[in-house]
Amino acid sequence: MAKATPAVLVWARETAGLSLEQAARGLGLGSQRTPADEQLAAFESGERTPSLPQIKKMAQLYRRPFVAFFLSKPPKNAEMGEDFRRLPGEEGSNEGDIRALIRDIYIRQTLVKETLVDSEEDQDIDLIGKGDFEEDIDEAAEHIKNALEIDTDSYRRERDAHNAFGYLRDKAEESGIYVLLIGDLGSHHSTISVKEFRGFALADKVAPFIVINQNDAKPAWSFTLLHEAVHLWVGKSGISAQTNTHKVEQFCNDVASRILLSDDETNALYERASQSEETYFNFLRNEARSLNLSTSLIAYRFFRKNFISKEEWENVNIQLREQWLATKQENKQKQQKSSGGDFYNTKKHRAGNALVNLVSKGIHEGILTETRAGRILGVNPGNVAKMVGL
């Protein structure tokens, strides 16, 4: 039987903010012969081995995945980062869920790295850490486009924003980046709102991760993916924020938006907007749809080029928020009337082809158990075989 790693037991308790005594009481340890804190100390020193039921209690108390206790060493502590893209006009408050989600992704990232090492495919990804926040915006955008082999015309020829995101995701995954769509802690009861986060990146030379909140509007997914790719390019992990005043945040926004819309195109769009008989917001929305962009991206470019004031830019964001809330309510009503779609296809789409293919290969080669595979994919072990088509 696999044994929990003592160093991981210590890490899980300490990062949960519990003393030895508090944790021992919460776990219901102790007997007439051995005080509770001494029993836990023995587990953490490796003198004794906790049973599987006791490890399950630890997972629940420490808010850690069960499989995490069997890692060879503690994963790196999750950074909240200085970049935090939320929905315009919203302030997040549920930091606990965010930290729990980041911890979960760090565990997955650790397992992916171990799998790559075991299969001798742990090669450094060329994009990671090659950039600098002081670089020229156009040059930075060109570097990332070349590294990911993005063709803007191909992106725009996609049928809609959802498929355009799929094009960018494929390019990122082909370069070695894992791109996940996640908006909860495992069930719809733990949904994390877009006001809490829109995306985050975990920089790593071997297994870089980008996570996008699936609850966000689909036209925004592409911008979030590229925004987080800029973070990976400079080798800096972080969760994205709504503020544009921070130097790092502004740089990531500028580069990501420049990849999808050049200066010349921005100038031409503003000239057409000035001559259009449509309302300003409707013009932006229609142009954005034709280019597979988000309306906020075009408005942001106008603002950064001083074509519109900060107040005008914020007004566009207010209208976008109202539209987003209305669309979200419509989608909710449609989902209630529908059967909900195929569970396995949904899970595969959210995990991404790169992660599914890695797991499938790992199982075939005997590198991954279904328990570890399920942890990587974010599903129960019993669902792994059908999800990866075994």
What does this structure look like?
- This protein has 390 residues and is mainly α.
- 57% of the residues lie in helices and 4% in strands.
- The chain contains 18 helices and 4 strands.
- Strands 1-3-2-4 form a 4-stranded mixed sheet, sandwiched between helices.
- Strand 2 and strand 3 (209-212) form a beta hairpin.
- The longest helix is centred in the last third of the chain and has 28 residues, at 310-337.
Which characteristics define this entry?
57% helix, 4-stranded mixed β-sheet, mainly alpha, elongated, 390 residues, 18 helices
Structural class: mainly alpha
Shape descriptor: elongated
- The total count of strands amounts to 4
Radius of gyration: 23 Å
Strand order of the largest sheet: 1-3-2-4
Summarize the structure.
The protein has 390 residues and is mainly alpha-helical. 57% of the residues lie in helices and 4% in strands.
How are the SSEs placed, and which strands pair?
Layout: H1 6-15, H2 20-27, H3 36-45, H4 52-62, H5 95-118, H6 137-148, H7 152-157, H8 161-174, E1 178-181, E2 199-202, E3 209-212, H9 218-233, E4 238-239, H10 247-260, H11 263-275, H12 280-290, H13 295-304, H14 310-337, H15 343-351, H16 353-364, H17 370-377, H18 381-388
Parallel strand pairs: 1-3
Antiparallel strand pairs: 2-3, 2-4
